[in-house]
Records
---
Amino acid sequence: MTGNTRGGGAGRRLELDTFMPYRLSVLQQEVSRLIATAYAEKYGLMRNDWRVMAALGDDQPLTANEVCRRTNMDKVQVSRAISRLLNRTLVARTQDTDDRRRWILRLTATGDEIYREVVPAARAREAELLTVLDPAERRQLDGLIDKLYRRANRLLREGG
Amino acid sequence: MTGNTRGGGAGRRLELDTFMPYRLSVLQQEVSRLIATAYAEKYGLMRNDWRVMAALGDDQPLTANEVCRRTNMDKVQVSRAISRLLNRTLVARTQDTDDRRRWILRLTATGDEIYREVVPAARAREAELLTVLDPAERRQLDGLIDKLYRRANRLLREGG
DNA sequence: TCAAAATAGTTGCATATGCAACCAATGACA
DNA sequence: TGTCATTGGTTGCATATGCAACTATTTTGA
């Protein structure tokens, strides 16, 4: 994938290779595949499962709702990931006595073990990826991601 | 989503917000949703359908295989998108007489009409998105996407 | 204090997806 | 020329997904 996004805006053709959202999507897919090598085959986790585990590993315990907020997943995705993780006893839950709609989620010992094995592997993939960027470029990347995310978010909320 | 990816690499926690692949994925999802407003509701297209149409609109005719290469989709995705598009007669195909495994794909008149309506809408969304970046930042973005894509691709090929 | 609105989480359904197996046609080459 | 490998494309199956509807509980407020 090589192209650029300059000159976009008006043409009658889309020219996928110069269409930023397309480029971003292709990049994301590739990066996501790379990271998946840290958890998918070896532990039979899907991305959403891993995300929920990551949220819990970062800060336990959490309710499903808090997991939603921290992972940017919606509640159906989270509910289903949790049910897969409960089946495999990687996560356990107890009902919140203060508000019985809520469930308090924690990694089990096994879940935590997997979390601790996957984190360094995932970070290692990230590090290998980022070796092509110098420190200034990494800062640029962070800044661009933030700016674009906020903008996209804003446009979506305005639009409907 | 605000955070950064500096300082990553070694910690025992993943800290999703500082994990570049996660940040990228969240951004991509949001951007993708934004662009989808240009084709999804109004024309009942899914992303893969739209991608195939975009490839054809950019350069007709193509075989399914060529669509794969240009869109970075795999052949199953393309095959299914095409079958949806054939059902709706947005795309037509004729068998290649030189190699009867191949099908020559073209947008129909209706398909082309939709393509011509969606392209400016999609480009307009992109433009609104990119208003938060100055020209230098846009160039940076292009460069970073290319670098990271090539790197991820390389690591994936090496790894497995 | 009770009905209506809001919130946490789950589920049904129709549809999409990934993977491997598959079919048909072509190409390679002994 | 006949067999084997390759390529273009499709399909079956099990599973994942999006959406809207749903249950159960808590909150609001007249």
---
Amino acid sequence: MAQISEKVRTRFAPSPTGFIHIGNFRTALFAYLFAKHNNGVFVLRVEDTDQNRKVEGAINVLLKTMQTMGVVADEGYYLSEKNKVEDRGNFGPYLQSERLDLYQKHIQDLVEKGSAYYCFCSEQRLEDLRKEQTALKKPPMYDKLCRGLSTTEIAAKQEDFVANGTRPVVRFAIPPEGVTTVQDLIFGNVEYENKLLDDQVILKSDGFPTYHLAVVVDDHYMQITHVIRGDEWIPSTPKHLLLYKAFGWEPPAFAHVPLILNPDKTKLSKRQGDVGVEDYLNKGYLPEALINFVAFLGWNPKTEQEIFSLAELVAEFDLNKVNKSPAVFDINKLDWINSKYIREKSNSELAELLMPYWVDAGLIKQDEKLAKEFLEDIAGLEKERLKKLSEIGERTGYFFAEPAFNPELLAWKKSTLADARIKLSRVKDLLSTIPDETFANAKLLQDALMAYITEQGFDVGAVLWPLRVALTGQQFSPGPAEVASTIFVGLGKEEIISRIDKAISL
RNA sequence: GGCGCUAUCAUCUAAUGGUUAGGAUAUGUGGUUCUCAUCCACAAAAUCCGGGUUCGAUUCCCGGUAGCGCUACCA
């Protein structure tokens, strides 16, 4: 067991697949929070033992995502200031494919101790065996055929393999009897009968170790004190424990985190929407919102506070408060949290965040220079309406191009189109008497408008509705004074007058 | 098939051997309002089923059911 005085070391060990699954990210976040809460170290190591699944440039993407999320490793891989993949720490290399010698040495060690053995069975035999077992409704397991091979038999088979240019795999010899108990910080004790555990392959024929061997060796040498990982690993944990025992090592503490589910309660998968952290980032969910949301899937502080910064999470996080039951990923709640964070941004921060989405929507050209003030004003108007950044395009098109709309829309529900036109021309007259300083301030402009409406004894809606539609072409939008003031700032008073003229003559 | 895990409103969850089972999101209604959004108020909404233990079980135990995970030379 980990001593209290020992420095906590946790790790995130993704495979380089090119994106970070939201469930993996949450696990990484928990590992990070736990380490930081205990003044420990958070390590990032890359598990690339499956050469078939290797994706070019994946580590870069991975680190970039971690960095924008603000969850950066103290040790292992990180992204340098020049966006280069670098590593740091005393327990490297942090890429498993660069640690092959270490694994092979330990596998050899196990073979010599009799805790592991060469297996010469062909894939065909293994497949047939599995089919047969399944047909008989028996659990598919390796039948340990090679476990009893004599030294001379092994030598002979080795020779055949060498002649064919192939290599045998190595399997871990599970003790035939006894019970292995996983003591999990979240799930409690889970018992497994050894005889039900399969003799797992630990060295593949391509010379790479499997996950099971590599994870144990690495966690040991990297001095990981708490293995925090997804709960799909619980069933393999007894094998890992037995491996620690075979090596004569003290195992770390384990904390398995429950899964994240689709709304239909299946394991969160690509088929039912986005699963990559990158996907959500691209849609305009803010990193802090994503972190806040994901942290609350399976964990909560047991108070009524729901909005937490990363620093607050570090202060509050406690593995004891992690639930055992899986949680459904509820996009509505994410939207709500995201909109809360959007509202907390300053107009200028928000305008900057919004820029790529305006470009994306074709409203602003890549290197087009627009008045900062204009964009900030627009950002301010939309701030409390946006659920995610990507919505900005469809909401603000009228600021960048004259709106086209059906004239019928000009008619307020309690009035008529003809009346709308009359009101618009009256408003136009009024606006020509209003000084620029008033235009520049939405509040003052609103006051001026209201004063006029009251003085004339008009219905408020009979004036504001058509004016708003004339300016925006939209059924729903921010108020006319706010919009007019923003148009004034970005496009000038003439644009306002021209839109009103246009609406009158439509 | 085997092994394992899980089970409170639609969703995220709180709480408890005795409570009107609490909050949040989403939903609905009303207020504010030219519209939308915000904001405010209100409403509807849950302890999977069956046994046991107990004066009393949503809570503890057992069984069932359901869901999920694992069952690879993938992680």
